[in-house]
Specification:
- Helices cover about 40% and strands about 15% of the residues.
- The protein is elongated and about 45 Å long.
- By secondary structure, it is of the alpha/beta class.
- A four-stranded parallel beta sheet has the order 1-2-3-4, covered by helices on one side.
Length: about 140
């Protein structure tokens, strides 16, 4: 709780700057309780003029994180997927066996859930030699 209280205080000090939030890096939904706490702080803050979440959608395999994301009013969610072929995507992204979105059907369901939380969901794909590597692949 101290972490979230400190984060809220710091964001309050920055509110006049009207900065953007880009939540990226280690999968933010990997620790659901942390994600919920951050979303609660972000929802209560007026600091940000734009909020973007970058995710692999793994935390949205079930619907429990969607309400807090919706409450935080993110402008955009960008979802990483490296290939439309499940096997090829798995070779690149290396999801653990327990991660439901490694399967295309579960990934599609997670994307539908995200559409319920924000008006803009975008797919993000890095070009790579073993995955999507040409204009034709796109």
């Amino acid at each position: 709780e101290r972490y979230f209280a400190t984060l809220a205080r710091l964001l309050e000090e920055l509110k006049d700057l009207k900065v953007g939030l880009s939540l990226s890096g280690h999968e933010a939904t990997a620790e659901p309780n942390w994600f919920r706490g951050v979303m609660e702080v972000v929802a209560a803050s007026s600091t940000f003029d734009e909020k973007v979440l970058y995710t692999n959608a793994s935390g949205f395999a079930d619907a429990s994180l969607v309400p807090c994301l919706r409450a935080a009013s993110f402008d955009r969610v960008e979802v990483s997927r490296q290939h439309d072929d499940e096997g090829m995507n798995q070779k690149i992204m290396r999801f653990g066996r327990h991660v439901a979105v490694r399967c295309n059907d579960e990934y599609a369901a997670a994307i539908q859930r995200l559409h319920g939380a924000t008006s803009c969901v975008m797919n993000s794909c890095l070009l790579s030699q073993v995955g999507i590597s040409t204009v034709e692949d796109v």
